[in-house]
């Protein structure tokens, strides 16, 4: 986590369109995060029923994608349960603290909610990261989940590009269209300004394939975002700029 010499890298984002309303706060270095502020779109009406799919619970409620510890605050609610689960795994294993709430046009489908959540998270990532100096820059990881195994390779390059191979066998995971995993991560890479490759190398169960992919991505993010002692202020590029 941050110190007086290395303050925590944080960002708060509000993204409103006709299709989605999103509030998000992110700390790349973990630690506590204040509750998201009430707005016209999110008046913080207390609803303690975390199982009600048609309503958003209080930020103090324990939900399927919330985890408050001494080192991390994670609370996620998009209305798409499997998306929440993947974002939770990503934040947890990247060492992030993350709060997200989204109201999307789920009466249409999950596309706009997923896409816009990843876009907002990408914007928060690059905002929190700040000047791209003194970083490891590159990150890579393998992550298994039972029979599934995934690899993620990340370059904080300011050259947005995404390649992903997931091999899902079913069209849906819960209420999340499997196509949206690829599209969502591509949207994140675009706004985050990173080059990202994610490959599911093996696995029979789609849930396991997806979760191992997000866990691999999380560890790669943690590695790439690490501050390198003695490289403060230096750009890790032969071009001298990222």
pLDDT averaged residue by residue: 94
Count of alpha/pi helices: 4
- What's the total number of strands? 11
The proportion of residues in beta strands is 25-35%
Distance between the termini: 24 Å
Please provide a written account of the structure.
With 242 residues, this protein is α+β, with helices and mostly antiparallel strands. The chain has 4 helices and 11 strands, in the order ββββαβαβββββαβα. It has a 5-stranded mixed sheet with strand order 1-2-5-4-3, covered by helices on one side. A 4-stranded mixed sheet has the order 6-7-11-8. Helix 1 (81-94) packs parallel to helix 4 and helix 2 runs parallel beside helix 3. It is globular. Mean pLDDT is 94; it is low at 46-54.
Which keywords apply here?
242 residues, alpha+beta, five-stranded mixed β-sheet, four-stranded mixed β-sheet, 27% helix
SSE blueprint:
Blueprint: E1 10-16, E2 20-27, E3 66-68, E4 73-77, H1 81-94, E5 97-104, H2 111-129, E6 138-145, E7 148-155, E8 161-165, E9 172-173, E10 176-177, H3 179-192, E11 195-202, H4 206-224
Helix pairs in contact: 1-4, 2-3
In brief:
This protein is α+β, with helices and mostly antiparallel strands and 242 residues long. The protein contains 4 helices and 11 strands.
């Amino acid at each position: 986590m941050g110190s007086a010499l290395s303050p925590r890298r944080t960002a708060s984002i509000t993204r409103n369109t006709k299709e989605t309303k999103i509030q998000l706060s992110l700390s790349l270095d973990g630690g506590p995060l204040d509750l998201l502020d009430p707005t016209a779109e999110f008046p913080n009406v207390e609803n303690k029923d975390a199982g009600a799919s048609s309503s958003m619970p209080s930020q103090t409620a324990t939900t399927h994608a919330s985890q408050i510890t001494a080192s991390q605050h994670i609370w996620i609610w998009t209305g798409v349960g499997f998306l929440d689960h993947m974002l939770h795994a990503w934040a947890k294993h990247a060492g992030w603290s993350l709060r997200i709430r989204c109201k999307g046009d789920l009466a249409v489908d999950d596309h706009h909610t997923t896409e816009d959540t990843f876009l907002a998270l990408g914007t928060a990532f690059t905002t929190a990261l700040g000047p791209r100096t003194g970083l490891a820059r590159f990150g890579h990881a393998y992550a298994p989940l039972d029979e599934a195994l995934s690899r993620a390779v990340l370059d904080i390059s300011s050259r947005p590009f995404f390649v992903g191979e997931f091999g899902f066998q079913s069209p849906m995971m819960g209420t999340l269209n499997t196509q949206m995993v690829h599209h969502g991560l591509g949207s994140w890479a675009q706004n985050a300004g990173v080059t990202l490759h994610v490959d599911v190398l093996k696995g029979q169960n789609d849930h396991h394939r997806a979760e191992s992919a997000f866990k691999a991505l999380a560890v790669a993010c943690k590695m790439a975002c690490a501050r390198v002692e003695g490289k403060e202020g230096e750009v890790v590029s032969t071009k001298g700029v990222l």
